[in-house]
Specification:
This protein is α/β, with parallel strands linked by helices. The chain contains 6 helices and 5 strands; from the N terminus they run E-E-H-H-E-H-E-H-H-E-H. The strands form 2 sheets. It has a 3-stranded parallel beta sheet with strand order 3-4-5. A two-stranded antiparallel sheet has the order 1-2.
Length: about 150
């Protein structure tokens, strides 16, 4: 798991290879502080492609069957262009989920997410209830391979 924190700027909090156990990951997530105001979703997706989903940062190589998945969480409307960068991310093999919180713009979420949209776009009222999506993501990402 990697975390790319974004607002008007983007900061990679930690890379894919940084944490190998649940407790250290939870401690690292608890230490994350929100960045200042702004919603540069396109820049965040581009940064994830350029820096987080690289072999050097811990991503598996092109011959791997391990999927690349990004969950974009936003409570606003992107202040930059997300259409093209999201399309490039999807074309590069990254599956995009979009989670809107509070006043998030639903059309923007749909522009970012992979198809089918009903499986990749979510909405929650507040950050406090975002955990209700965790079981859905666990089913999707941690399903047993028959």
């Amino acid at each position: 798991v990697a975390v790319v924190n974004y607002a008007s700027t983007v900061k990679i909090e930690f890379h894919l290879q940084t944490h190998s156990d649940k407790q250290s990951l939870k401690r690292a997530v608890a230490r994350i502080t929100p960045l200042s105001t702004g919603t540069m979703s396109g820049l965040a997706i581009q940064t994830a492609m350029d820096e987080a989903f690289t072999v050097e940062a811990g991503a598996r190589g092109p011959s791997s069957n391990i999927p690349k998945v990004a969950i974009i969480v936003t409570d606003g409307r992107p202040q930059d262009q997300v259409n093209e960068v999201a399309a490039r991310a999807r074309a590069s093999g990254i599956e995009l989920y979009a989670v809107g919180v509070d006043r998030a713009d639903m059309e923007s979420l749909k522009m970012m997410a992979s198809e089918p949209l009903d499986e990749h776009v979510f909405y929650v009222e507040t950050y406090g209830v975002i955990e209700k999506l965790s079981s859905r993501f666990q089913e999707t990402f941690c399903a047993l391979d028959p």
